């Protein structure tokens, strides 16, 4: 299938590693030019160079913290200065701290709100006028399985990603007449650096091995294994593509069957 992504300009946030990077790789493999951001410049530039070399597409890396609206504006300005437009926006950020309600101070809530919700609002605000003017756009938010089935001890993720989902569903209706789709993609347990370090932290806390901590997650997953970033990125690329032109307002999991609900 030709996804129709060749020559499109895609901005992927928080993409120096993990899920964001995997999505960037898949879009590059389809011929899209990229703008990537992450906080640490060295790792970001190394990722950009590797993708450029592997796929022969231009990749611009701008060091930025997506929780800071001024940084977000700077990234989008740099994208427009280099490529003239942004066709595809993939929002993403680092995960918020774990914890139950009692463990989370007002400051932690506020920081997580900036990281998970404000980042999506500001990235969207910055790219939407151009997408509307050209009558074509794709916005894809990386959220989590926690929006369909809350995960114990992840109060911040469960709450704030639900807010992103509400915003996206509302925006999808508002911008559909402009040829812009807005969707969410929900990773389940996927083998990224973050998940490996979560397993190591759980192991250290409980005096078990990291393999045992991972095995406990795998036992909850019908596929009995973690997902691979590439498996996640395949759906992401499709949802960003020309071929997904009639899919909007949805939240689609890539979770090996972890979510047990019917819809
Ligand atoms: P990761 O730690 O492997 O990668 C995160 C990327 O985001 C890195 O490139 C990092 O530099 C960048 N980043 C972090 N904070 C940033 C910020 N404030 N501004 C700009 N860039 C920033 O994580 P991942 O596993 O790829 O997860 C990505 C998102 O998906 C997270 O929000 C995570 O909570 C969520 N998620 C992941 C899983 C999973 O199993 N991997 C499951 C559900 C949800």
From TrEMBL:
Q: Which domain of life is it from?
A: Bacteria
What organism is this sequence from? Hymenobacter frigidus
Signal peptide range equals none
UniProt record similarity statement: Belongs to the short-chain dehydrogenases/reductases (SDR) family.
Looking up Gene3D superfamilies in the UniProt record yields: NAD(P)-binding Rossmann-like Domain
UniProt protein name: Short-chain dehydrogenase
**Matching InterPro entries:** NAD(P)-bd_dom_sf, SDR, SDR_fam
Supply the SUPFAM superfamilies for this chain: NAD(P)-binding Rossmann-fold domains (SSF51735)
């Amino acid at each position: 299938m030709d996804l129709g992504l060749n020559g499109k300009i895609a901005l992927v946030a928080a993409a120096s590693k993990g899920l964001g990077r995997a999505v960037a790789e898949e879009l590059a493999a389809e011929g899209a030019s990229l703008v990537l951001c992450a906080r640490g410049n060295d790792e970001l530039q190394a990722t950009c160079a590797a993708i450029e070399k592997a796929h022969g597409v231009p990749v611009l890396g701008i060091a930025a913290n997506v929780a800071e609206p001024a940084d977000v504006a700077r990234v989008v300005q740099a994208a427009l200065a280099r490529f003239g437009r942004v066709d595809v926006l993939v929002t993403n950020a680092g995960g918020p701290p774990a914890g139950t309600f009692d463990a989370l101070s007002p400051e932690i809530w506020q920081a997580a709100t900036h990281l998970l919700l404000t980042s999506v609002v500001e990235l969207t605000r910055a790219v939407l006028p151009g997408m509307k003017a050209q009558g074509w756009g794709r916005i894809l938010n990386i959220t989590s399985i926690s929006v369909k089935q809350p995960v114990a001890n992840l109060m911040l993720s469960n709450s704030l990603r639900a807010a992103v989902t509400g915003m996206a569903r509302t925006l999808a209706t508002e911008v559909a007449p402009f040829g812009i789709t807005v969707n969410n993609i929900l990773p389940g347990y996927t083998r990224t650096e973050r998940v490996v370090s979560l397993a190591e932290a759980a192991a250290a806390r409980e005096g078990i091995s990291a393999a045992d901590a991972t095995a406990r997650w795998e036992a909850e997953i019908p596929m009995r294994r973690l997902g691979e970033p590439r498996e996640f990125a395949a759906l992401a690329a499709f949802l960003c593509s020309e071929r997904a032109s009639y899919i909007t307002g949805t939240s689609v999991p890539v979770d090996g069957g972890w979510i047990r609900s019917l819809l």
